[in-house]
Amino acid sequence: MLIESPAAGVRTVPVAALHGSVADPLLESMNFLNEVTARFPEAVSFAPGRPYEEMFDPACITEYLDAYIGHLRRAGHTEQQVRTALFQYGRTKGQIHDLIAETVANDEGIHIAPEAVVVTVGAQEGMVLALRALFADPRDVLLVSSPCYIGMTGAARLLDIDVVAVPEGVDGPDPAAVTAVACEVRATGRRPKAYYVVPDFANPSGASMPVEARRRLLAVAAAEDLLVIEDNPYGFFTRESEPRPTLKALDEDGSVIYLGSFAKTCFPGARLGYVLADQRVRAGDGTTGLLADELAKIKSMLTVNTPALSQAVIGGALVLSKCRLRAVSGDIIDFYRTNLNTVGVELERHFPAERRKSLGVRWNRPDGGFFTVLRVPFVADQAALERSAKEFGVLWTPMDAFYLDGSGARQLRISSSYLRPERIRDGIARLAAFITAETQSSGKDGQQ
Amino acid sequence: MLIESPAAGVRTVPVAALHGSVADPLLESMNFLNEVTARFPEAVSFAPGRPYEEMFDPACITEYLDAYIGHLRRAGHTEQQVRTALFQYGRTKGQIHDLIAETVANDEGIHIAPEAVVVTVGAQEGMVLALRALFADPRDVLLVSSPCYIGMTGAARLLDIDVVAVPEGVDGPDPAAVTAVACEVRATGRRPKAYYVVPDFANPSGASMPVEARRRLLAVAAAEDLLVIEDNPYGFFTRESEPRPTLKALDEDGSVIYLGSFAKTCFPGARLGYVLADQRVRAGDGTTGLLADELAKIKSMLTVNTPALSQAVIGGALVLSKCRLRAVSGDIIDFYRTNLNTVGVELERHFPAERRKSLGVRWNRPDGGFFTVLRVPFVADQAALERSAKEFGVLWTPMDAFYLDGSGARQLRISSSYLRPERIRDGIARLAAFITAETQSSGKDGQQ
Questions:
Q1: CB-based contact (8 Å) between B349 and chain A?
Q2: Among B133, B129, B184, residue whose Cα is nearest residue B152
Q3: For the whole model, what pTM was predicted?
Q4: ipTM exceeds 0.90, yes or no
Q5: Which of A53, A57, A283 sits opposite B84 (nearest CB)?
Q6: Which residues of chain B are within 8 Å of residue A51 when distances are taken between CB atoms?
Q7: How far is A255 from chain B (nearest CA, A)?
Q8: Any idea where the domains of chain A sit in the sequence?
Q9: Which of A175, A299, A330, A381 could cross-link to A216 by cystine, CB 3.0-4.6 Å?
Q10: Cα–Cα nearest to A414, from A341, A336, A335, A343
Q11: CATH topology (fold) of A61-327
């Protein structure tokens, strides 16, 4: 690309292409999705992975803020120290690290020193920090469970890090496949450094890892000298009353770097996430420190520190929950559970066994989270999405952007997080009509 | 560095060193400064470039938030749209771009389309976005006015971009030196891509560019095919009632990318900054777009979007000021002006002409901003800072970290932003005693 001046356009300056392991179509497909959504505001949209927002109340911001200020005062902060905490530059690793450490202990059974917590501008910044700290050499390769969340492939692209896909198995992310791909990568003279995975209700596939598979993955990580980057935005929203243990909770030898987010458990507008990085780092001189402190050095050059405002508001929410977010999130957990069930029930109603067999339509049945994936007998690309929006008033997310090789062309992602159940029923009816029409127009070749 | 597991420490994984154009001592000196500051809480500290914080009032957060919500309602937002704006994921380029465009028009005479504004997590993220967009090739070089703010050299280091220093002249950043260094860089087969400068009251030197020099710099940028990255955190805080025009206000051919920040004009805890990038970008297929949209693509992989909370609170402050921050900032502008004058007056009192000549002590007299630089006849390093803190109860910032070549060993930076005038008078007296003692102990060789 070239820059030209707004005036005569005489000068031109090259702009860096976002080369690397993922192609521009990724961003373009996201932009197209936003653009279609804007053009068809009346359509039922299963596209955004956004949390439901009807329960958000502006008054709660002040309530959370006051709760955090009260917490600081009880902890002995003077009024000047309270002002400093809210308004001034802050600690690079963050100022609510203690509250976060207590919350992950209560909610996830992860016991970690507050010093090992790095508070970030969403989990996205955590991805960039982790990759920048771990990847030193052009031969270093990031393995990702595929299909993969575009935030991680995007972060790798930003840092020009090579990414290799590890295909999900029928039971979700597959430890045996990690071993196989790691060996293939080494055979090419490159070095697998880390494996990125969302073990609970992955975006986009909705797939999860059984507990036994989690233990096998940790064994593989130790055997293959891989670090595991665990991303857990959806673990809260499970069908079972007892969630599965996170990889970090099962991790006994420091294999797991954990990415957390408050975007779904509190709200996205704070852009608050965190990294748990308790690995030890040894310097050349033999002195040791925490990986979290290495991440902080990088963060100081990226965002300096995470906004004190966001930390204060989310910190207040944690204080009000007594650092037990799960315990106070029953209603919203039930809401997402009901929505996910509604998607499954409505799909079943419109595509009973015989019918879906004849049409060649399939979908998975995630144990929780926001996403369901449909496999259809036609190419579910941007043109199809356009027809779906225009003629049937329903939006969804094409899956090809989540695959490094552009496969997944005959899959579409249904997000059930953002809509009320009645709207979901309406939307699935529209989707069923769209799928039926597309399948018929695409003809027999679709049946597979 | 090596990572070892917290357990047996069997596994080791290399961690990427923060190599590049700036050495680790930079961060270490900042860490040392924080550590000394913590160890000597009673010392008068001229070290932090922080804004004064006594006027911060937690109540104003709710006041600003309400003002922004009122602004949205007047603009026709429904209650649901207000909720979405505060709590949900947002526009990648930001949601207060229109308020920022109006404010820079009123306060800086910069007339720019709101679409060319990218709202960032502090100016620091803006630096990373600009560098990642512009620097494509290992031969590309960033020129920086030297001594240079460590945030920019840090951002370049994060992205492994080579940095070459352009020494400040007696009148501050020097256009002729930019031409000379650009030619030297080309002679080595490398390509100068951009020049980073703080034209008003630079951190750390306090130096500014006369208006005529600004025009010459823009001519040099056009002639040398350089983009200028203008960073303007301190332009507000001038001795004159009429501030100098920014480079961006004088820019007629799209040479200038402007980095703005609300950290000093509002408060740092929002971590809110912005980039003005109205350069046109032409794609291979001939379609054109805005550089701001290229920055947004990168931002989507770095922080997704700037926290809506921070935008709402700062947006409210802009609304309350009718997008004329300068007009409502008279008191704080006077405060910083008084503080800077107090530093000069007190230095003059303790080091009258004859005495400073015999001691070999000099300082500059900035027209505004937060910083004054002293040249002393001894090495003002960490050991000297330790003695200054321990024996004289006064802190300052060693200057060597602001130079790529580690020069500036006999300079120290005095920040006058964070203290009350009476505390400044006390602190300069302590500093004078320290400088006198050091000079005498360092003996004749110091006299230069």
A1: no
A2: B129
A3: 0.94
A4: yes
A5: A53
A6: 88
A7: 7
A8: 15-45+330-441, 61-327
A9: A175
A10: A343
A11: Aspartate Aminotransferase; domain 2 (3.40.640)
